[in-house]
Design a protein that fits this description.
The complex is a heterodimer. Chain A is α/β, with parallel strands linked by helices. Chain A folds into two domains: 247 residues, 3-Layer(aba) Sandwich (Rossmann fold); 38 residues, no CATH class. Chain A contains twelve helices and ten strands. A six-stranded mixed beta sheet of chain A has the order 6-7-8-3-9-10, sandwiched between helices. In chain A, helix 5 runs parallel beside helix 7, helix 6 packs across helix 7 and helix 7 packs parallel to helix 8. Chain B has a domain of 34 residues. Helix content of chain B is 36%, strand content 21%. In chain B, helix 6 links the parallel strand 7 and strand 8. The longest helix of chain B is centred in the middle third of the chain and has 17 residues. The radius of gyration of chain B is 20 Å and the shape is globular. Classes of the chains: A alpha/beta, B alpha/beta. Chains A and B meet through helix 8, helix 11 and helix 12 of A and helix 5, helix 6, helix 10 and helix 11 of B.
């Protein structure tokens, strides 16, 4: 069952600009509830624009995005049409963008740059307070979120600026999950982190996913796609190219056409194939199998 | 070859009262024309070190020499004619109201004649792929585009030493490759151009002339990549990885398959394993 759907979604940033172009063009796709989706494509392919329509941060210029019963479009006529004959409850729900934003938590690229409060706990409380929670309630929710992202209680009254890069990012993510979103969207969550920091963040995201949340990740990191994604959405020049699995994507001859970096493991396997390696190289998805196959080719 | 950078017993702490030292007694040297990768986990002191080298922070003690001149508060202006840093967060360095204005900012400060300035802005905006965006304001640009602008602004200055502090982290792989190629082209034109890359990209580090690893503010290792990455356990013990080609070579060695020492790329390793 889908949870997010886009229907002929097109987005133009500045229509008045004589050089304007479609940042997204006629994109129709569905994202299943509970899926772990990676959205990939080169810079300017429309990845970040697409995910910003999911919580109505921007509205499609034409077509629409639908998150459960919430319709997102700047085409007023279309919205009226979509809400025609709908239940009163749906019409009422569509009046409250704040509820949608609670449902769809959006973590921007380098979220740590947006930390601002004097203490970690105050920073995380900011979101829940904005959604109407009282001071004490917000504090409780913030504490729970910080513990969920692995920040110990002894840190709560510290300045967020004293933390390392990975810790800051976890605090920033805690600020978003404090609103308990059903859908968590993360734009380049591992950019700029060291290998341990990347693993920490991805394990954290995996835990959210295991709790039943839908996870949508925008990324250039193809090793992350290979190891974590269940579904991959490929965008190129604002157009949807395909919705596929990581295994199929990395073995597709089209991958280089879309300027996606093949994970080093697959790059190496392709090189061996092209150089005429005398052994079985089919269906290798991990490092240990690769080594085993090289050994077999040499000695068996 | 003479030295582009020399650091002796450098110490620094953001809050001396708390006694937490961010840089602890660090010494190293970089020769003119070298491509050096500075690596280490988040919080190891890499960015602090970059700021100290450009004297954006003042050391608590120790000495920094840039192009043979000891850096101090009196010669900052002179030093910054030689060394420049592009930082990770492009929003903190975007000064102009447009792309054109931002690339021109450093040139204006150096009183570059107008005609020359226009020529340089055109040249470097084209080289980083931003020539079609010259009139755009920063809020119309993506993070990666802003990083390209910041890179153009530094490259246009014609400095002898350039430090990239994760300066391409918001670019897609094709964009990162484009910038790397540009740096190599510039180094070909000027063999004395020294480039320091603060990076998490171990594959890039493996192809550098030299690698310096920081750990908890201290110099952990320094040397040519083959020597530094040879000690897999030492590298992994501080949460870093070794390059893929070495991972394969080491795993094969454990199974009794030896590969030549001089293989540094997956292309070379594939050729060897295929008997080419």
């Amino acid at each position: 069952m889908w949870q997010i759907k886009t229907n002929h979604l097109t987005y133009v940033y500045d229509k008045k600009d004589p050089n304007h172009y479609d940042a997204l063009s006629d994109v129709s796709l569905e994202i299943k509830k509970g899926d772990l989706v990676c959205i990939v494509g080169k810079t300017g392919s429309g990845k970040s624009t697409l995910v910003q329509t999911f919580n109505n941060l921007i509205s499609p210029t034409s077509g629409y995005c639908q998150v459960e019963n919430f319709y997102i479009t700047s085409d007023k006529k279309l919205k009226k049409e979509l809400l025609k004959n709908q239940d009163k409850s749906v019409i009422e729900e569509n009046k409250h963008v704040a509820r949608l934003r609670r449902k769809v938590g959006l973590v921007f690229q380098f979220p740590e740059y947006q930390l601002f409060a004097e203490t970690i706990i105050k920073d995380v409380m900011f979101g829940p307070k904005n959604f109407g929670l009282k001071e004490e309630e917000a504090k409780e929710v913030a504490k729970k979120s910080l513990i969920e992202v692995g920040i110990p209680e002894s840190y709560f009254e510290k300045s967020p600026f004293e933390l390392s890069g990975g810790e800051k990012r976890r605090v920033a993510i805690a600020g978003i999950i404090a609103s308990d979103p059903d859908i968590l969207v993360l734009d380049e969550p591992t950019a700029g982190l060291d290998p341990n920091g990347k693993i920490e963040i991805m394990n954290l995201i995996k835990r959210f996913h295991e709790k039943g949340r839908t996870i949508i990740i925008v990324t250039h990191d193809m090793n992350l796609v290979l190891n974590f994604a269940k579904t991959v959405i490929v965008l190129n020049d604002g157009k949807l190219i395909e919705v596929t699995s990581p295994e199929k994507l990395f073995q597709s001859p089209d991958i280089e056409k879309y300027s996606l970096e093949i994970p080093t493991l697959f790059k190496f396997i392709n090189l061996l194939k092209n150089d005429g390696f005398a052994g079985n190289l089919s269906e290798i998805y991990d490092f240990d199998t690769l080594i085993k196959r090289i050994y077999e080719a040499k000695y068996e | 070859m003479s030295l582009a950078i020399e650091v002796k017993n450098l110490n620094f702490s953001y809050d001396s009262e708390e006694g937490v030292q961010t840089i602890k007694n660090v010494s190293f040297s970089i020769e003119k024309g070298q491509y050096v990768s500075l690596i280490g986990h988040n919080g190891s002191g890499k960015s602090t070190l970059a700021k100290l080298l450009a004297y954006l922070l003042e050391p608590a003690s120790g000495e920094i020499y840039v192009d043979g001149i000891r850096v101090n508060e009196k010669n900052i202006r002179e030093i910054r004619q030689t060394i420049g840093v592009v930082f990770q967060n492009p929003d903190n360095q975007f000064i102009g109201s447009t792309v054109e204005g931002d690339i021109a900012f450093g040139l204006e400060n150096r009183a570059v004649p107008r005609e020359k300035m226009i020529e340089l802005v055109k040249k470097y905006s084209r080289l980083v792929g931003m020539d079609k965006f010259l009139n755009k304001s920063p809020d119309e640009l993506s993070g990666g585009q802003k990083q390209r602008v910041a890179i153009a602004g530094i490259l246009a200055l014609g400095l002898k030493i350039i430090i990239f502090d994760e300066a391409t982290s918001m670019l897609d792989p094709e964009g990162v490759e484009d910038i790397k190629k540009l740096i190599f082209e510039m180094k070909k034109e000027d063999p004395e151009l020294t480039f320091v890359s603060i990076t998490h990209d171990i594959e890039e580090a493996y192809l550098s002339d030299k690698v310096i690893i920081l750990n908890s503010g201290e110099k952990y290792m320094e040397g040519v990549p083959e020597d530094v990455f040879a000690d897999e356990d030492k590298i992994k013990s501080i949460g870093l990885d070794i390059p893929f080609v070495l991972q394969v070579k080491n795993a094969l060695k454990k199974k009794g398959i030896e590969t030549p020492k001089n293989i540094r790329t997956i292309e070379e390793l594939s050729n060897y394993l295929c008997g080419k």
